[in-house]
Each structure stands twice: as structure tokens, then as C-alpha cells.
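#struct-pred

JT: dropping the chains for the assembly here, can someone run the whole complex?
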Amino acid sequence: MGRWEPDARDRLVRAALDLFSEQGYENTGVAQIAERAGLTKSTYFRHFRDKREVLFGGQDELLELITEGVAGAPESAGALTAVEAALVAVAVAFTEERRANGPRRLAVIASNDELRERDALKMAGFARAMKDALRQRGVSELDADIAAELGILAFRRGYARWLETGGDFAAVARRALEEVRVAAASLERPHPSN
Amino acid sequence: MGRWEPDARDRLVRAALDLFSEQGYENTGVAQIAERAGLTKSTYFRHFRDKREVLFGGQDELLELITEGVAGAPESAGALTAVEAALVAVAVAFTEERRANGPRRLAVIASNDELRERDALKMAGFARAMKDALRQRGVSELDADIAAELGILAFRRGYARWLETGGDFAAVARRALEEVRVAAASLERPHPSN
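RK: done, full complex below.
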């Protein structure tokens, strides 16, 4: 795919974010994005299925990293340790380029209902991948559901913080997971009298 | 809306589930559903925006009940107690009619990618409503996120169990929430050495 334009993908993402920020997501077309990037529409479609996907690229890579991360945790590891391994495994995808684009990307997504839905489905897909990989390790349905949801909360919080602070995504995400774990363990029992 | 056909909505849902089960969701049209229910297409569209929505009716009512349930919990209640109040509040919507349709409804949703996405978005919407209502009570962002996600897990587990056992949805959902809470509090700490 486009060996002669090694940075085509990054150029398309940057051009799209420029245009979405300047004139709005709704008012921007794929042809315009390609033109701004100095590429053709057909190059665009070799990289992204449609206009929306330029904002959600790399999802398949993250899904794979999550699955491999959970699967690769030591055999003795519990559910949360395996989730932590997934957060560490995805760090390789969180490059400086991704961080530079992050704030504008989030702002565009927040501006549009359809994009917010797409983002919610992406997160649900990540949770599903974590859960399935945990089930493969023999974790119970309930623990896998909970650990995956807490893992996704940590992922989101870690991502937001990493956009601000930079540094190693793995370290930021691990701290976020520990905060989430402590908070989850500290929620009160609904019926103290029971 | 259709006072002269007081049960139009239920008839449309039943007709749709009959047809989806007999011949598949993809092969069924709105006109056919209306015909099977002995109603007109325009009556269908007074009740449901499109074909998909016949499977997701009542979502706005549930969102309101969730918000009111959380808001109506005693002032002293913590996040999980407020979530529990929401699960109790929604029980009024879980009628015998809904239970009778439930298994076929779930089977149709599971059969189709687009419907599974729609269902995931519905659940994300419930989580969001819970979280927002918890934030209104002064619950921290993190605790609100966690309590809402655990609440939705309890909601889903409670719903699945209630379809099997029947009885009072509130009681089933409360038991599910307690199970989720106990499991969440029991997840291991990832780094015992830290």
C-alpha cells in the first residue's frame, strides 16, 4: 500500500484535521482532504474506507495489541494484571504524531453526533476484545466484564492525561488503572444494614 | 398518538418479532410489519422512526427513569446506592409483555451487526445518563464513571436473568448489582510489590 508515499497516511490525517478544524467536519469532503495532502482521492481510499475513518485509523492495530497484551500476561496473572498488560502493549501505537493530533481529533469528534457514536462503538469494541481475551484465559464472565470496563475507563483517562503530559503512554495508563481500581474497590456497599 | 388503537404499539412489536424470527430481519420491511399487525404503514411511523426502532422502543422512557431514579435517591446515598435506585426505578417498564418478547428480541439483535451496534449505543446512552445524574449529585468524575459502568453491567445481567426467571425486575437487578459490586471490590491489585 503506497510504498512510494511512505507518509501518505499521516499527511491525510493532518490535512483532514486541518480542514475539519478550519471549516467543520460536515463541510469537508474526501476530495478536499486528498487535495490538501497533495494526494489523490484513490490514495485516500487505499488508506481509509470513508471520511469518518480518517479519525479512527489504527483501530485494528489497537484491537490486536489489546488481545495480544492480555494473552501474553503471565499465566498466574489475575484479570486486572492482564488488563494492565494490554495497556502496556498498546503504548507502542501512541506516538508523538498521534499525540500532536490528539486534541484536535477529540474536538472534532465531540462536535458531531455521528462521530461520538462511532467513538463509543470503538470503545465498546476495545472492551469486547479485552473481555474475550480474558475469557480465553479462563477468567469468569463477570470478572472479565468488570475488568474490561475498568480497563477501558483507565484507557480513556490515561489517553486524556497523556495528551496533556506526554511521556510514556504505558506509565500514564498504568497509573490510571491503579486509580480506577482503588476507586472501584472503595465504592460503598448500597445496603450497610444487610 | 393512536388513542383509537390502544395496543397498536404492542401489536407492531409482536408482528415485527414474528416476521424477524420467521424470515430474518434483513428480509422484512416496515410495510409487511404493519400488514401483519393489521395496521397501516403510517401508524407504524407514528410509533417508530424506522424498522430498527421497533426493537429499541421505550429507550427514552428508560433514560428518564434512570435519571429520575438517581436524582431521587436520598441525599446521603453514595454512588452505588443511587445507581441501585435507578435500577429499582426502571422496573416499572419491565412488564410481562416485555419479558415475553425479550428472548426473540435478543436473538434478532444478536443476528445483525447493525443491531448489535445500535444496542451498544443504547447501553452507552444509559451509562451516560447514569453518570450525568451522579455528577449532578456531586459524585466525582471517576466514581461516577465507575458506578455507571458497574450499574450497566448489573442492568444487563439482571435483564438476562429476569428473562429466564421472571418476577420483580427490581429485586433481580439489585441482586445483580450486589454481585457486580462484590466482584469489583475483589479484583486483585496488579502489583502486590508496589
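JT: nice. Chain A has two domains: 8-47, 58-187. Chain A has a mean pLDDT of 93.
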